[in-house]
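Letters spell out the chain; backbone shape is given numerically. Both lines appear below:
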Amino acid sequence: MRDYLHNKLRTTALAALLACSVAAPGAVLAEAEWILFTLDNDTFVGNDNGYTNGIYVSWLDTPEGKPAEIGFLARAMKWSLPDGGSSGTGFSIGTIGQTMITPDDIEQDPPILPPDDLPYGGLLFYADTFVQIQQSYADSISVTLGVVGEYSFAEEAQETVHDIIDSDEPCCWDEQLDDEVVFQVSRGRVWRTWVSDSGNSDFLLSADLALGTISSQVGAGFMYRYGRQMKNSFATALLISSRTTNPVSSQTGWYLFAGARASYLGNQIFLDTSKSYDDDFDEIDYQEDRISVTAGLAYSWKEWSLTFAMNDLNVDEDSDEAEEYSEYGTLTVAWKLD
């Protein structure tokens, strides 16, 4: 009976999240113009611990000749947009994603637990994002709803992948973070403050605020880009702090980009482990004041776009455990449907 109820809860949790991901974007799914596949992985920086893996599937609607429709969840933040999101052009993004972290040694049994190492943890979520674009600036709103714990299915995902690639088997997912429904709301703006006479270089400034149980932070940053056909893609710089996709080149062209961001981190679900375990563990010691950097390349041709970036969420992190979470690479492949 207990196993039946356990499996029933797992199925119900997944069904609820999937139902949200289908119902919330509404016309966005029906009229999606781009499909994006994003992989975050610390093997890009030579590790297999800390921020281990993140897989995201996004669909993006960029309607021509009419305003983009704001997704169901993102409408909760519509009030914060100029003119309620009715001016300028824009696009809507729906994202289903899964992210996970593990300790440094996934074969050690029993595992080293926080604060001496990162926990086993997974997050399965749906994010609803809307970006409104003006001539020289763009705004974003986003609402994320997800689950942490065994209903994130991070254990099954990691074990499956490690079986396929014949890698070390993780031993201790039964020690993962407790089950919890989590959320986040965020608001951002990016300004295209300078463009070279040739149009091949520009400079972007950004500011963002996020609140929720997934994480809460406030930050500001800059990005420099060099390339071709960049005019219509500067707004995608707003997506980089979401960890769901890279900045993309939206038409035939390419650009190199590099940027930095200063932020204050109030809470983070994977690092504030004393709030996520039944046992009274100490929190991982991490810096609230953070400097993050990113650098990469975006390239598009015909109906395809490819972006790769290297990221460090805090270049001055004192804690070895938090540093493992901070460094990762991101690969995004986008396909235009029409």
Summary: The domain at 2-336 is CATH 2.40.128.140 (Lipocalin). The chain has a mean pLDDT of 80. The chain is about 15% helix and 45% strand.
